[in-house]
Amino acid sequence: MTAFAEIRVFNTLSRSLERFIPLQGRRVFMFVCGPTVYDYSHLGHARTYVFYDTLARFLRKMDYSLFYLQNITDVDDKIVNRAREEGRHPLELAREFERYYHEDMEALNVTSVNLYARASDYLPEIFEQIRVLLEKGHAYVTETGVYFDITTFPDYGKLSGQRPEELRVHRIEPDPTKRNPGDFALWRNRPRDEFGWESPWGYGRPGWHIEDTAISIKHFGKQYDIHGGAIELAFPHHEAEIAQAESYTGVKPFVKYWIHTGLLTVEGEKMSKSLGNFITIREALRQYNPNALRIFLLSRHYRSPIDFRWELLDQARNSYERIVNGYANLMDMDLVDEGTEAEGEFLNGVRSTRERFFSSMMDDLNTAEALAQLFELVRVVNAHYEISGQLTRAARDEAISTFQDMFEVLGIRVGLGYDESMIRSLITLLLDVRSHLRSRKEYDLADEIRARLRELGIEIQDTPKGTKWRMMR
Length: 473
Description:
Elements: E1 8-11, E2 16-19, E3 27-32, H1 43-61, E4 65-72, H2 77-86, H3 90-107, E5 115-118, H4 123-135, E6 139-142, E7 145-148, E8 184-189, E9 204-206, H5 208-220, E10 224-230, H6 234-249, E11 255-261, E12 264-266, E13 269-270, H7 281-287, H8 290-298, E14 306-308, H9 310-332, E15 334-336, H10 341-362, H11 367-387, E16 390-392, H12 393-410, H13 420-439, H14 443-455, E17 458-463, E18 466-471
Helix pairs in contact: 1-12, 2-3, 4-5, 5-6, 8-9, 9-11, 10-11, 10-12, 11-12, 13-14
């Protein structure tokens, strides 16, 4: 499937919808800001990374050749401070939480990243960029470190839309050695009893922003197609990346499309440990299916804020069960040799949902509307199941393909696992045993089989047409 010119995305840099046209034909290079690995990942992380995973899946489905790069911030004051509290080496702590992050992403079926790049592996690139920025007069050295002089970059503020007079406050503590309050650190000198490295400008650690440009320029060069991250990173982090990169390379724009996700709040408040509303991915997955979590996160447009409430995950879980039941009904339909008028109407419904699904994704990656089309496909299947319950193999295969394409793009896993035929046979055997027990009025054992299967995520339904089962996980 190819429709390159039809995809539109909202570019934060231009504040408008633009046709998506990569810099190099069908090749797409995408960088997304990864986590700072000092704690478990939370639902805000899930919102961001599930979306970019879906974007990557969609681009590949549209026949783009995508390289998706994500950094791992394993050098940061938060890591150093927590490691000090626990009496551990900062990189040891970082590796532990990096492992937890990968486990969380795997659980959420976030599998599209080609390369995870640790900041600590790119010190030579960081040193080189700082050296060039100093030579070009964009940076200066003080006793506390090396800083980027924002007055040397007239475009500073173009991404966030802030005026120069609004750029006086920076996330880092004021430093009297800086020329301007808004100048940001490229390198920060630290006491030798702290974790750090030797550099040409003293012992210390790199600044946050320079880590990402060192990684992305190393792998993508002077320009690339997509930079992603949560909207709260637009300033100062992404603004600083632009200033560093374009000053370093002399090439504009550094990134063609800046695509940002909206905030996730919890009952109207920013998620915070101090407020007691900090919800980790692991906590959510202890109670809900990963598919339900993906459905919840994709049920809002990526640029819109999401206000989390637990009951919304209940709704998403119910939605996933509807999808599973619809797909199972499709698989349960009787196969016939000749189609009917009802089958023709069924296929028209399948094809229209497919067309609208991909049109929704091409219109600024509207996953909310795309999900609505998946639910419409379920409705079409269920209606035909009730009316007819039979299809030709070709019609069923087309509907299965449509389901699977939607699942693939949205990252929803519906299926039985690695050896589906064997698992189906085992479940059928257990149901035959259960039926035999019921016929002998040994209901306790029959109910025990049903309960144990439910614990495994297999729901048993006794219907007038016989016993049916559904995989609910």
